[in-house]
Amino acid sequence: MIDIGLSKMALIGAVALIVIGPEKLPRVARTVGTLLGKAQRYVSDVKAEVNRSMELDELKKMKDTVENAARDVHNSIQTSASEFEKDWAEATDTASAALNEQTTVVPAYKHPGKNWRLKRGAVPQWYKAKSGVRTKAQSGAARVARFRPQKFH
């Protein structure tokens, strides 16, 4: 970069004041300032574009490595799956041969018949009945009617 100090800036300003003149100097300084601003924006845009292209190249490389890793995993899973299928076929063949030799009848699965919708508590019903725990909810009016003293006739 060009090293411009305060003394050099003062010298340039004095020469510009003499050459251009005091009337046109503010307009020229404004024009030079806008041109320098445009040049800085252009340079920063070029830098940003170069950085984007570098990041895009890095992302493409990363995408390729991830795709290669995924392809390797897929191939290894396929080979292990084919080995598993081969082993499974051998095991089922030996199991079916062993079943043919044995004529043991295995009973079919029978569902236990529990109602899964029914909520079951941890305390047994017989204990609740013995200790006097209420098992059914009653409304307030039903409770009042139940415990209202009977009238004597």
TrEMBL record:
Biological processes per GO annotation: protein transport by the Tat complex
Pfam families the record matches: TatA_B_E
Keyword annotations of the record: Cell inner membrane, Cell membrane, Membrane, Protein transport, Translocation, Transmembrane, Transmembrane helix, Transport
InterPro entries, per database record: TatA/B/E, TatB
Mode of membrane association: Single-pass membrane protein
Domain of life: Bacteria
Molecular function in Gene Ontology: protein transmembrane transporter activity
Compartment(s): Cell membrane; Membrane
Chief site of localization: membrane
Any one cellular-component term (Gene Ontology): TAT protein transport complex
Family from the record: Belongs to the TatB family.
Subunit (UniProt): The Tat system comprises two distinct complexes: a TatABC complex, containing multiple copies of TatA, TatB and TatC subunits, and a separate TatA complex, containing only TatA subunits. Substrates initially bind to the TatABC complex, which probably triggers association of the separate TatA complex to form the active translocon.
Function: Part of the twin-arginine translocation (Tat) system that transports large folded proteins containing a characteristic twin-arginine motif in their signal peptide across membranes. Together with TatC, TatB is part of a receptor directly interacting with Tat signal peptides. TatB may form an oligomeric binding site that transiently accommodates folded Tat precursor proteins before their translocation.
Protein name listed in UniProt: Sec-independent protein translocase protein TatB
Encoding gene per record: tatB
